[in-house]
Amino acid sequence: MAFALHERLAADTIAVASLELCELRLMNDARFVWALLIPQRDNIRESFELFEHERTRLWQEVDQLGSFLQHETGADKINIGALGNMVPQLHVHVIARSREDAAWPGPVWGAGQAEPLDDSERQIRLAMLQRFVAGIR
């Protein structure tokens, strides 16, 4: 099946790797450790539009990433969301939240302006997510 990434997701995130089902991307916002999983399927807006085995795989990848981020960051809470109101392409946010972060205890959406990652922090976060990828392959 063909896969085209929505232009907003491409603009706001940094490519990390292709997993079994999803493309893993890092959100370009220094305020939060925030990754996205995007099923590599065209014209999918909702998880129920995936085949059953793909839905199972999607949530496995979400859970694996959430567990990894919890361990790596010591997050107080892992937020998982698939809103899609601004970007219709199915994508799942996996965000390591801390009581000290810029939006706590509220949601990250609508909390101030994104602060782009500097080169150093981008490399640190990409390396962390590459460790995740290496661990699930």
TrEMBL record:
- The signal peptide stretch is none
Pfam families found in the cross-reference section: HIT
**Which InterPro entries does this chain map to?**
HIT-like (IPR011146), HIT-like_sf (IPR036265), HIT_Hint (IPR026026)
Taxonomy of the source species: Bacteria, Pseudomonadati, Pseudomonadota, Gammaproteobacteria, Oceanospirillales
Domain HIT: start-end pairs: 36-104
**What's the protein name?**
HIT domain-containing protein
Q: Which species does this protein come from?
A: Kushneria pakistanensis
- Taxonomically, the superkingdom here is Bacteria
